[in-house]
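Readers outside the structure-tokenisation community will struggle with the description of the input data as it stands. Showing the layout once, in full, would remove most of the difficulty. For illustration, here is how one protein appears when written out as sequence plus structure tokens:
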Amino acid sequence: MFQPDQICTPEIDFHNILHQIMMYQVEQNQIYKRYLDGLYSRDLILFGHPDLNFISSENIDPDKIPLLPVEAFRDAKVYAEGDKNHELEFRSSGTTTSIRSRHYVAFKSQYEAAIFNGFNYFYNLNDFVILAYTPGYIANPNSSLIWMLNALIGQDQTGMSRFLEVGMQIDEDVIQTILNSGKNLMLFGAAFGLIEMAENFPIKLPSDSIIMETGGMKTHRKEMTRDQMHKTLANGFGLQSDRIHSEYGMTELLSQAYSLGDYWFKTPPWMQISIRNRFNPMESMEAGQEGLIGVIDLANWASCPFILTGDLGVKRTDGAFQVLGRVNKHHLRGCNFLLEVD
């Protein structure tokens, strides 16, 4: 077992821990093993194959790691901790009739470490009062976003951080109290909710405030580009455009990436991005080339840290990445190999 602070630390020896976690996944994660079996066959995994030499290498190239399609979390229990009872269970949003992804988290402390250490890698949590606005998410008691926001809010010793009432303007007295405290305001929530607030209840926030949008535009009444969305938020809250930040996360991940006032997301040291060919996900794309966003999140070691998302993106040479949109059709060959659950 890995310790939370062994993973979620700026001093992580990424390649060493990646090697250990890869070996652990191949041994313990039945779904990931079934996926590899489908790609290569069990005999090749057990007895060696040129394509799999990286598994036993201590200098694993993240761009060569087979990434599990994110749909697996919808169709099977992706879990590497055997008979141990999971401590948290998160479910993606969706209708009552849709099949939702489930993420079984073996250790609550690992998610807490990913949240707090990740946030503090880019910001200082003690500097902020967090006001969360999450219409549509409160109805999902298994929302990982709600859990994360509750955790961040719970760290505020002043008691000023809170969830805002849906469909109401932010109270100016609350803003003044935050100003008087010497802390900065962070308005944190899904994009569609923040857009509706900016349009229906515009208010000028202190100039050092940050709007943190988490995406989630799919339920909004109209399509908007990210540039349009950020301009709407900046205008509605009286802020400069560089005060509109973004968070990239999902039910199936424990860690988050952050965009600090531009459109480029940066990851904490225990998380890396690998852009893959959308027609052949075993092939990685060069910097600047568009492809599917693959995520290696070492905090996910007890479920699956190697995930191929349905998001299109592009990566820079420094590892920062942009999200360009979604792939709407089934795009990942090999997913059928893991659906034949015994």
Summary: The CA atoms of residues 276 and 302 lie 24 Å apart. The domain at 4-69+266-338 is CATH 2.30.38.10 (Luciferase; domain 3). The first strand starts at residue 68 and ends at 69. The two ends are 27 Å apart (CA to CA).
